[in-house]
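Two quick folds needed for the group meeting slides. Do the first one here.
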Amino acid sequence: MAAPPKPGYKAKIFSGNVNSFSEINDFVSSFSKSGQILSENSLYDVDYYIDSGNFMLNAILSGSVLGGFSGGRIHTISGDPKTGKSYVIYSAIKNFQRDNPDGFVWFWETEGSGTKDRMKGQGIDITRVRIETPMTVHEVSIPIMRMTENLEASIAKNQKVPKILYVVDSLNGLLSSKALQDVLDGAVKQDMGHQAKELKLLFNFCSKRLLKTNSTLLCTAHVYENKETGQPIISGGMGSVYFSSTITHLRKKIERDETTREATGVVVTATTLECRHCMPHQKTEMKINFNKGMNPYIGLHGYATVESCGVGKGRMMDYCDLLNEAVVKKVFNVDDIKEGLVDLDKLEAVISKDKKEVLDQIIIGNIRNGQCVMIGSDEYVKGSGQKLAFSDSAISRIIDGKVTSKGLPEKQAIGNPSSSVWVSDKLQKSIDNKTFFSAEVFTLDVL
């Protein structure tokens, strides 16, 4: 039997007019205070993303190459050991710090495998990371609960709160409280699902608390294979599956030098097993070189075409040796070249038209090959009276008044001069010129 209403209670009259949304909403609001019209509720807006460090991975996570891990949500990166899970996590931390100078990173490192040098090597500011080494799930869940509780109280008072990135690497390094106690008691027993239950509880309350405080949780997890379907299953129960906004599964293959067959890096295939921001089950490849790190641009050429973005292709041209041009065109005396500086305006006046159009890129190519240096400025400006000095190695190629091409490349990559902002230097660090200039070149406007 329902309890009688309290003295002074006045029930709100509801006419039953189902054609009036506002009238129904006013009635519901009289006894359910926490609700709000969706169009007026900012909790379900994603107002920031954390860059994963790879443009195509951003795309399959969020639907945009400029997106990534959505703020205020839970994200799980799964995979076998040594597939790049921690690498992606570290990249995300670095980019979170870059985009949020006042942001706070709280890192639970559960496997004892991280090092300061590796984190610094990936660009993380280790003076802005709080790190802990927990044994149990509760050593993560309780601190997050207390932190988010205080943040919610501050938000209720209209106080500004920082963005917080919580990181757990990995979930499988956490024991249940029972398992830890069993070990301390000298008893080795099966966990019997306690870890999975505690992880599910962690994800359950985090999913709401993170949304309300605009904080983000990134986790890594190991997997095992379903013997019947062959599909990967995340260890530690279904909590991460139920509550993660994205689940990204990583697999790898070793990349080797074609000549020495030595391992030079890994090619990681990322597949979104779950994605609530765009279509799931999308794949992309990421190349992580052991010396150079991850190239963020790999894969973009398949999605941006000349027709769709209006950016022209680059091309290959015969290498232009400026020393040879100066000697053959007889603009300068060989002795003068050996002893002094070359006036670029005089040299520009006698070279062919197609070379004049890209003289700035030709100069850069000669500088990179150690043939010359610019005096006063690294950027060529036509008509400015700039001077060029040839290096000793270049001058050594002058024999009996003629210039040999020993040690010089046959071809030079020339970018499309119609595009204003170029990323070709970064691309060429891991893609050979022939491959790069047979595809599209990307500008920041395109991205």
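Then this one, please, same format:
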Amino acid sequence: MILLTPGPRIRRLSLLLAEEGLDRQALLRLGRRAARADAALDERARAIAAEIKAQREPGRFRANISALANEPEELLLRFLADELKLIRGDKPLRLERLEALVLGLGRALRSGIAYKATLGRCGATPAKAIIFLSSCGKAQGAAGREPTRNRGSRVLTIL
């Protein structure tokens, strides 16, 4: 185990935080509460994923995600991140871009509006709350109306 000694900036900051009531014990308590909330959100996201009838194959995922329309944004984010992780492997997602995608996707799901976005060379286009994830690099046209087209190395299509 490596023990790090806080530098002078951290010591000054810790004194300022302690003056405001955020001493070591308060920060540890806050960390425990955040960990508890995080675990509850993870459990709910897994339960939602288990409830959604999805077609999962190696490198592919397809499901009706209309049940997520009224869920909190954080649950949609965790659901989508988990499914993308299965498709993309260990490649990390940029959280700020995933959050932007989820914000737009959530609005589209709730209002039924058209939406297009990309994330890590994944394209997103919702209609009728069907989500299709693929690692093949091709987007399938909605209900056969559009030809298949290349979209980079990873594809997220929400039809």
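Slide caption for protein two: The chain has four helices and eight strands.
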